[in-house]
Amino acid sequence: MLWVTAFFLVPMAIVWLYSFGENRGLTDIDLTGTLDNYKRATEWLYLSIFAVAALVTLICLIIGFPVAMAITFVSEKWRPWLLLAVMLPFWTNLLIRTYALMMLLGTQGYANKGLGALWEGASWVKVLVGLAPLPTWEPVQLLFNNFAVIFGLVYVHLPFMVLPLYAALDRLDRSL
Prior knowledge:
Layout: H1 2-18, E1 22-23, E2 29-30, H2 36-40, H3 44-73, H4 79-87, H5 94-105, H6 110-128, H7 146-170
Antiparallel strand pairs: 1-2
């Protein structure tokens, strides 16, 4: 209890007290006893951030639960390989993975090249059946928007959803 008090309860109490204060400088906080910080937490900016976090969590759960379930019930031969596939992104720096996503989602990236190839194939099929071809392909803006933010956050946080779910599901009784 001493360790919990010293290293958890006391720091949390200090942060709670600071939440009733105002910044007076880079490191100076004036404890004024105001509730302005709590009022500001209900502004649209912060609520939209909470909404994005909830959406990313929901997407990670929707994708991660079936993956964790599949890893749990796969044969013992394949389980280490699937766990390796989930943990493999941790072996690469987050900055490098972010730049790789930027290369993938950019206007000249693989995602746009694949969509362009599908577009040209659909245009070719239309010409083949005697219809007018589709207009020229214009790359889609997949970066610097909400889609890219949510896609990147899901990509980064998905292993953090899969691994605890797998650990919990692996302890369940499979005889039922």
